[in-house]
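Below is how a single chain appears once it has passed through the pipeline. First comes the sequence as given, then the structure the pipeline wrote out for it. We keep one example in the README because the format questions we get most often are answered faster by looking than by reading.
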Amino acid sequence: MDQRVHVPIDDPNADTEWNDILRKHGVIPEKPPSPTPIIEEALQEAIKQAHENRLEGKDLDELEALEDDEDEAFLEKYRKQRVAELSTITKASIYNQVYPLQKPDYARDVTEASRKAYVLVHLTSSLGTNVESQLLTELWRDLARKFGEIKFCEMRADLCIEGYPERNTPTILIYRNGDIQKQLVTLKELGGQSTTLEDLQRLLVDVGAVKDNDYRASSSRPLGSASKNLRGSKRTAEDDDDDDWD
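Resulting structure:
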């Protein structure tokens, strides 16, 4: 009767001559391929793409500033791309301001208008002490100037919906093709009293109102007139006491 021979194996994954012999005779399994080459290839590809896309999000002034550092033909490609984008944006920019709403005209100015463009409605607070609503009013103006192809509207919440709770303001309603695509009750989801223009730009990208490669949305330079003291102010107790639904 054959007796099973115990073959000493210190580390079956080690690159040793002994392990090579054992693998050849099927005593231990073949060593799995090293993931290192795959990882290195992926890193190199990521670096390559990052280099090729290094001018994404830069406007014409920023491209001009890179004339001494970048290949002229490469820069010219991006200049033409930006000029084409600006031309398209200019043609589509027909709003460029915040539109006050009246309840009798809501269906025409919002629901029907959303069949042609994205329409964003800010339902404002009726109180002068609601910091988030004040902040959003300022940011709304900045967005309207920056994204003229989107219609930005504003209306007091209690005049739009009778009995609408003050604690739910500001409310953002995003319309497209006659329907509400998204709604946000207060700015909590965006950053509360610290909400910035960039936060709202990301929202526009998320809902599809602005393309994710739109250089306007990737710009970190503030357009805003929203004052910092609004972000730093503390809400008073009045915000939570009035007009709440039980």
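The longest strand covers residues 179-185.

See the next section for the split statistics.
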